[in-house]
Design brief:
Number of helices: 11
CATH architecture of the largest domain: 2-Layer Sandwich
Strand content: 5-15%
Number of domains: 3
Largest sheet: 5 strands, mixed
Structural class: alpha/beta
Radius of gyration: 31 Å
Distance between the termini: 69 Å
Strand order of the largest sheet: 3-2-1-4-5
Order of helices and strands: HHHHHHEEEHEHEHHH
Length: 322
């Protein structure tokens, strides 16, 4: 209720009390203004105790909420939104996984709304599409591997730049990441060899865009290893949607929080930091498309394995499938 509306209500109630005092008959006053005697006496008692302020509407919120979310959980919710830009579903998943706090997504959303944080920053908001494509997923690990290159910012003061090569399994969302100082077929072949060595399952198909780094030498290098190489259609990046979406996660949850002092021109240190992020993504980060599972947990569910995750080499997670 605005101040103008509140003033109008207060004036009307004061007029009712003045009319009853003038004619000396409460019943006639109540009939004229269409209120009950109980309401009239309630307002008169408030006026006697508090004056004109007593005629204002009181807050309708309960004085006591026994099942209210405690302050510690609220502070964690606000911290995750402010520092990691998580939405309500992901905040609920993180609290359940890492703090053993079960809280509904709607509750998280209400807490954020009360604190003026209902929407994510503009670069992370959902944008409507004219035509929706259907999400798909391969049934078994290794059936299809999406590979792409992310162009990183130039090194300050130089003309050099780094390139992040990314491979993601279509089924489990397991990823392998590596940074190179060149983007050509030689580095692409080095990367795919590292991927095939580290992934704990056999790869059948590698899918890429039509970039120059994925042309004939890269293509026949895979064919010689009995791995089929397929290209997506030109100007259809959504066909490589899983690896493209993972690059946005890298921007939001890794590069925005990365302290680049000292590593911007040190490729070895850069790769060490990137490996830590890769391990966290594969083994600890809940994935929205996997119903809150991590890629490692999805891999275990698909392979029926019962081993604990390694931290440095994915081949130590699950024995390669033959």
């Amino acid at each position: 209720m605005t101040k103008t509306q509140q003033l109008r209500v207060t004036t009307w109630r004061s007029k009712i009390l003045q009319h009853a005092a003038a004619i000396g008959n409460v019943a006639r006053t109540c009939r004229r203004f269409g209120i009950s005697r109980k309401t009239f006496y309630k307002w008169r008692q408030r006026f006697v105790e508090h004056g004109d302020a007593g005629l204002c509407d009181r807050p309708t919120t309960p004085r006591r909420i026994p099942r209210a979310t405690n302050d510690e959980v609220v502070s964690k919710i606000v911290y995750l939104r402010q520092h990691y830009h998580f939405g309500a579903p992901r905040i609920a998943a993180y609290l359940k996984r890492f703090h053993q706090v079960a809280i509904a997504r709607s509750t998280v959303h209400r807490i954020l709304t009360r604190r003026g944080m209902p929407r994510l920053p503009a670069n992370q908001k959902h944008h409507a599409h004219g035509k929706r494509w259907q999400r798909y997923e391969k049934p078994q690990p290794g059936h299809r591997l999406q590979v792409d290159v992310k162009f990183l910012e130039r090194i300050p003061g130089t003309r050099r730049r780094f390139y992040q090569f990314t491979a993601i399994d279509d089924c489990t969302r397991m990823r392998v990441l590596k940074v190179f100082d060149a983007c050509n077929q030689r580095t692409a072949i080095q990367f795919i060899d590292d991927v095939l060595r580290r992934l704990p399952f056999r790869v059948l198909v590698v899918q890429t865009d039509n970039g120059a780094e994925f042309q004939s030498q890269f293509h026949w290098h895979l064919e010689q290893q009995d791995i089929r190489h397929v290209y997506i259609r030109p100007r259809t990046p959504h066909l490589n949607g899983k690896v493209e979406r993972s690059h946005r996660v890298d921007d939001q949850e890794f590069y925005q929080l990365l302290d680049k002092d000292g590593i911007s021109d040190d490729i070895q240190l850069f790769n060490e930091k990137l490996r830590e992020w890769e391990d966290y993504y594969n083994c600890h980060r809940p994935h929205g498309a996997l119903d809150g599972q991590t890629p490692y947990e999805r891999l275990l569910a698909k392979t029926r394995a019962t081993v604990s995750p390694g931290s440095q080499d994915l081949t130590s997670v699950v024995a390669p499938a033959m």
